[in-house]
Amino acid sequence: MKGDGKAGTCTHVFTPAAKATVGAIGGILLMVILSFLLILHKEKKKGQEFFKKNGGPTLEKANVIKLFKKEELKPILKSSNLIGKGGFGEVYKGHLDNKEVAIKKPISGSVLENEQFANEVIIQSQVIHKNIVRLIGCCLEVDAPMLVYEFITQGSLHDNLHSNKNNVALNLDARLSIAAQSADGLAYMHSKANIRILHGDVKPANILLDDNLVPKISDFDISRLIARDKQHTGSVIGDMNYMDPVYIQEGLLTERSDVYSFGVVILELISSRMAILSENNSLVKSFLEAHKKKKKATEFFDKEINSRRFGAS
Questions:
Q1: SS3 at position 276
Q2: Where do the H-state alpha helices sit in 54-150?
Q3: What is the pLDDT of residue 221?
Q4: CATH 3.30.200.20 in the chain, residues?
Q5: What class of enzyme is it (predicted)?
Q6: Is 201 a catalytic site residue?
Q7: pLDDT by residue (tens digit) across 35-88?
Q8: Is 36 exposed, middle or buried (0-12, 13-18, 19+ CB in 10 A)?
């Protein structure tokens, strides 16, 4: 510092070392900022490439479903919001536009690409039925497109039948209503929708219940969105305990396959037993054996149903 001691006459003098330090710090900060901007540019470009690859232009033109930005979904995709995990990917619960939603994050490479994916999403966006989970939107700015669905509050029929997770009482009337409405949803998919839709994995875990115990069929998208070359690999979600034997043998999925699987669901509804009873015994086999022995169907009913049905205390 130099000056004659009078006010306002002192000036700062930087030594060469100080100047070098400031210059180095400034250079580092500039490099950090430039690197950050470069990363943002690359991420944006990558997102644009994924958007195009996943059929974004087609869906934009169709304007039938909301296209979410990756940044909108990112806060939801954390472990604390994970509510499900399977061969297809992960499911997260969160809020978007002040609504509870379920986000399906598929395994990379497990879904269709380009126009195929876009066309399937357009078809699903037109599936509107009170007993089918509604597709709200999707995110195409990632390698494997993420799907956004309405969130169904009371969990799956499987959980309500076989665990105390939700503690929802399913009396005879509730079970009959669930069966009838689920059948209505399947019938819509098979014959009333704009295009025939086969589910391929009908089971209690894929029938969700809302606050009023109204059933909503879910995961019918899996068999349609799964990549064609993945259909006979472990990435296909399908439960052997509910599969049509003909489908297992011949590999041909039909409406009858769904109807068979739904029949197993009905057996679970009336008996409250799991589809697989033991390693060598199933619910279907047990029911057929009881039928051969000419036992009454009511003997197969859950005790709670029988007691309520006959007014027992």
A1: strand
A2: 56-62, 70-73, 114-125
A3: 62
A4: 52-152
A5: transferase
A6: yes
A7: 777 666 566 677 778 898 888 898 999 898 999 999 999 999 999 999 988 767
A8: exposed
69 is in an annotated binding site: no
Q: State the span(s) of the chain assigned CATH 1.10.510.10.
A: 153-217+239-313
CATH of domain 153-217+239-313: 1.10.510.10
CA dist., res. 149 & res. 83, Å (int): 13
* Predicted structure pTM score: 0.78
Lookup result for tokens 């169709």: 62
Helix (H, G, I), strand (E, B) or coil at 59: helix
Q: How many CA atoms lie within 13 A of 32 on its CB side?
A: 6
Only one residue has tokens 């029938």, namely 207
Separation between Cα atoms, residue 202 and residue 265, nearest integer Å: 8
The CA distance from 102 to 148, in Å, is 6
Which of the residues 4, 201, 244, 302 is marked catalytic? 201
Which string of b and e fits 181-206 if b means at least 16 CB within 10 Å? bbbbbbbbbbeebeeebbbbbbbbbb
